[in-house]
């Protein structure tokens, strides 16, 4: 690593100006002993949105992130190995029948969270998925009406100026996307040809990168390194959308601040956060705590926060914290095209078909979206090593076909299973905190989705003219671990994101998702967080919330 | 052993070094990679011999006068304890997995061929790794180590990530390489921008960066 991770930047009344190479913006600062309205743990898709929503509602807010505060223009290189600095690379133990890859696969560590490296795919849940159990017969119902979520999707799609088609082919009719769609690259048009040959719909993928200038951010230049951090700010991540909003509204952001434990009093209410920053342990007092560390760090923090009234970990009276961890099936099929595709040009997934999310005549529960692909060299090479055992001249020959490759990959729904979970191991990390153990195994329905999708994608690719097909398997994303539900017996938090057993503790990240759906989760996490932000504001207006003096 | 692929002879991704396709931090990072190959700090000399032979088997480079350095960057990652974020439950911590893995490969070579791994000819090294990947092992050093998991997801994974992060590997596969801030305009099949190399027709090797 040459540049690597910057030191603490957001301090002494200023924070990095993410639209500049070395500039600053003013930042309101609080002392540790000062009671604030909200302390937020994590600044990604959940916490970043929440910081802006609460600060804009007039609350005093301090948002903590374990990762650094990057300025994309100066800090992000066009080089995969250097950009490993975006990921949560502390070792976590991956266990179970089908252990999942962590790190770069699903875990960011930066102000802005995993949205700094997300692929920008911005799809909504199908409305029926919010009643998966009662309407479709699997998984869980969400304690939220789909129309409330759809209003929140409108809000976050506008906040990110999602570029997408005028008329999206699936789901209820709705307005056009805020920005016009991008031209679909050659890789996306392979998906289009395959979909048309098989008689299923396709669309330019709605994505969170600008198709026209916006403020100080330029439109996308199609450089194709989106997944390792956008160096031009065209990508609309939390880092360059909600974080600047939060700062402007008076939130304080503390970078490189690892929250270890939530302190609670004898009555069980949260009183503050123990965190490590600048080489020392500190304690921030607060009236309310919002946790948004994602599906591993959120359960880890709660389980590590036992107190006099929470003997088995915070909000864990029913032993549900850490359970029902979900991923997405991320199986793919790849092939060689006669044409030169050069799939590295443009965002990696520019075309999508949600056919199998909206078609119910099938022999498995849940659904999947198929997206076109454009992996960078080491990403593609390691997937051939891991899946095919390719090495030696065989691997070099396969990689020599890089510019003629095309691929299709799914985001496939995984059923919630209480045995898939996050626990604390008896090992400790460099700060003395328990190392999390992640236990995961696919169920029969999950495997059926992978089989169905690989078969269907093979047909699509053949119909599009691809030869020498091969398959890979894998997982993407994290969801669940602290599900939102209807009662203290079935869930960790209620529909407002409020912990059943601690009334000044909230969770607003992907861990509260009761089901995973067949689409990338970031837009749903943001929408749900914005919705919870509105709920907190309504509770405060009714006087049902603790406020700082 | 089959021949090395050369689909784009004469293409050099570094020809774009002084153009708007390479920004300052990318130049800095890649220059560092090219100019400052780390010294051995972590592995013992005997481990290093096995590591170098392992790298040369996972990605053989008989076609290159100056092979892409691989073992030095593996060693640097260990010295800096640069972990990936995943510790497979069946494996020990990263450093121990590498140390025990190299020892097991060396022991396997002695068990099968009666010689150390780095002393074997290339084809024997390759078939030994193939057998390890098939979990067909006999050396007692494997004990509880799962050979395929270790080989694919730890050892080969890291070596391959180092190789394909090097500009010579980008040139080999015709990857356009860094493209910030200029990016691309023409995204459709068989089309290229004026500043993209014409990869299909051999060209004279352009002058490398100064």
Explain this structure:
The complex is a heterodimer of chains A (549) and B (210). Chain A is an alpha/beta fold and 549 residues long. Chain A has one domain (14-541): FAD/NAD(P)-binding domain, CATH 3.50.50. Chain A has 12 helices and 20 strands. Chain A has helices at residues 47-56, 72-75, 132-136, 146-159, 186-198, 242-248, 294-303, 355-358, 377-388, 393-400, 444-463, 522-541, and strands at 14-16, 24-26, 36-41, 61-64, 92-95, 203-204, 252-254, 258-264, 270-277, 280-291, 323-329, 332-336, 351-353, 368-372, 405-412, 421-428, 434-439, 467-472, 475-481, 505-507. In chain A, strands 3, 4, 7, 8, 9, 10 and 20 form a 7-stranded mixed β-sheet that branches. In chain A, strand 3 (36-41), helix 1 and strand 4 (61-64) form a beta-alpha-beta unit. The mean pLDDT of chain A is 97. Chain B is mostly helical and 210 residues long. Chain B has one domain (13-173). Chain B is built from 7 helices and 1 strand; from the N terminus they run αααβαααα. Chain B has helices at 24-35, 45-58, 71-79, 94-113, 122-133, 147-163, 167-173; one strand at 86-88. Chain B is elongated. Chains A and B meet through strand 5, helix 9 and helix 10 of A and helix 1, strand 1, helix 5, helix 6 and helix 7 of B. Strand 5 of chain A pairs parallel with strand 1 of chain B.
The count of strands of chain A amounts to 20
Cα separation of the termini of chain B: 35 Å
CATH 2nd-level architecture of chain A: 3-Layer(bba) Sandwich
User: Could you name the ranges of chain B where pLDDT drops below 50 across 5 or more consecutive residues?
Assistant: 202-210
Main sheet of chain B, how many strands, which sense, barrel? none
**Number of structurally distinct domains of chain A:** 1
Helix content of chain B: 40-55%
Number of domains of chain B: 1
Instruction: Return residue spans of chain A where pLDDT drops below 50 for at least 5 consecutive residues.
Output: none
In whole angstroms, the N-to-C terminal distance of chain A is 46 Å
Helix/strand-derived category of chain A reads: alpha/beta
CATH superfamily of chain A: FAD/NAD(P)-binding domain
Strand content of chain B: under 5%
Kindly estimate the percentage of residues of chain A that lie in beta strands according to DSSP: 15-25%
Shape annotation of chain A: globular
| Total E-strand runs of chain B | 1
The largest interface is:
A-B, 71 and 68 residues
Shape of chain B: elongated
> What is the CA-based Rg of chain A, rounded?
22 Å
Instruction: Report the top-level CATH class of chain A.
Output: Alpha Beta
Give the helix tally of chain A. Answer: 12
């Amino acid at each position: 690593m040459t540049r690597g991770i910057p030191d603490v930047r957001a301090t002494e009344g200023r924070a990095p100006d993410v639209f500049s190479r070395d500039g600053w913006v003013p930042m309101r600062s609080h002392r540790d002993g000062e009671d604030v309205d909200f302390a937020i743990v994590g600044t990604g898709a959940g916490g970043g949105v929440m910081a802006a929503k609460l600060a804009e509602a007039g609350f005093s807010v301090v948002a903590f992130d374990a990762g650094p505060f990057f300025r994309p223009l100066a800090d992000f290189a066009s080089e995969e190995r250097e950009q490993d600095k975006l990921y949560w690379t502390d070792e976590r133990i991956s266990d179970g029948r089908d252990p999942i890859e962590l790190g770069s696969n699903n875990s960011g560590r930066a102000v802005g969270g995993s949205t700094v490296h997300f692929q920008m795919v911005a799809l909504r849940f199908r409305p029926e998925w919010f009643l998966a159990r009662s309407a479709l017969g699997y998984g869980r119902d969400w304690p939220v009406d789909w129309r409330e979520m759809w209003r929140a999707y409108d809000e976050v799609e506008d906040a990110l100026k999602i570029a997408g088609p005028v008329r999206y082919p699936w789901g209820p009719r709705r307005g056009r996307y805020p920005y016009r769609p991008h031209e679909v690259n050659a890789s996306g048009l392979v998906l289009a040809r395959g979909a048309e040959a098989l008689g299923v719909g396709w669309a330019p993928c709605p994505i969170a990168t600008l198709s026209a200038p916006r403020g100080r951010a330029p439109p996308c230049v199609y450089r194709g390194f989106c997944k390792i951090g956008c160096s031009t700010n065209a990508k609309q991540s939390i880092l360059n959308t909600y974080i600047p909003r939060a700062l402007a509204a008076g939130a304080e952001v503390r970078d490189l601040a690892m929250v270890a434990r939530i302190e609670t009093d004898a009555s069980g209410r949260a009183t503050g956060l123990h965190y490590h920053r600048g080489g020392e342990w500190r304690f921030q007092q607060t009236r309310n705590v919002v946790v948004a560390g994602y599906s591993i760090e959120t359960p880890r923090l709660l389980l590590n926060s036992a107190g006099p009234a929470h003997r088995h970990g915070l909000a864990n009276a029913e032993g549900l914290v850490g359970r029902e961890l979900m991923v997405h099936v991320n199986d793919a099929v790849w092939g060689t095209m006669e044409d030169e595709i050069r799939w590295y040009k443009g965002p990696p997934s520019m075309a999508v078909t949600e056919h199998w999310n909206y078609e119910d005549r099938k022999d498995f529960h849940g659904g999947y979206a198929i997206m076109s692909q454009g992996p960078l060299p080491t990403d593609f090479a390691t997937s051939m090593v891991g899946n095919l055992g390719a090495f030696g001249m065989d691997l070099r020959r396969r990689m020599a076909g890089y510019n003629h490759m095309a691929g299709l990959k799914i985001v496939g729904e995984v059923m919630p299973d209480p045995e898939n979970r996050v626990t604390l191991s008896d090992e400790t990390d460099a700060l003395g905190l328990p190392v999390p153990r992640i236990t995961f195994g696919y169920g029969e329905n999950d495997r059926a989705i992978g089989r169905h999708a690989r078969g269907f994608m093979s047909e699509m690719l053949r119909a599009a003219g691809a030869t020498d097909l091969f398959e890979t398997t894998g997982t993407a994303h994290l969801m669940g671990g602290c599900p939102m539900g209807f009662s203290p017996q079935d869930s960790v938090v209620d529909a407002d994101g409020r912990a059943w057993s601690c009334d000044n503790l909230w969770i607003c990240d992907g861990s509260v998702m009761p089901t995973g759906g067949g689409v990338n989760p970031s837009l749903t996490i943001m929408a749900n967080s914005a919705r919870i932000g509105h709920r907190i504001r309504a509770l405060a207006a009714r006087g049902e919330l603790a406020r700082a003096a | 052993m089959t021949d090395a692929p050369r689909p784009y002879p004469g293409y050099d991704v570094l020809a774009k070094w002084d153009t708007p396709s390479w920004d300052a931090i990318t130049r800095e990072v890649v220059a560092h990679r090219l100019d400052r190959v780390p010294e051995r700090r972590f592995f013992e000399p005997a481990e290093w011999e096995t590591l170098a032979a392992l790298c040369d088997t996972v990605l053989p480079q008989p076609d290159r006068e100056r092979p892409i350095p691989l073992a030095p960057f593996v060693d640097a990652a260990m010295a800096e304890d640069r972990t990936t974020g995943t510790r497979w439950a069946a494996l020990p911590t990263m450093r121990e997995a590498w140390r025990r893995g190299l020892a097991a490969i060396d022991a396997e070579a002695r068990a099968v061929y009666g010689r150390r791994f780095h002393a074997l000819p290339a084809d024997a090294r390759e078939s030994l790794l193939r057998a390890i990947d098939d979990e067909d092992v006999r050396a007692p050093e494997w004990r509880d180590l799962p050979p395929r998991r270790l080989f694919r997801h730890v050892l080969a994974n890291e070596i391959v990530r180092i190789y394909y992060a090097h500009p010579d590997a980008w040139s080999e596969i015709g990857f356009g390489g860094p493209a910030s801030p200029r990016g691309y305009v023409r995204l459709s099949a068989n089309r290229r921008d004026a500043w993209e190399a014409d990869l299909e027709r051999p060209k004279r090797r352009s002058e490398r960066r100064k």
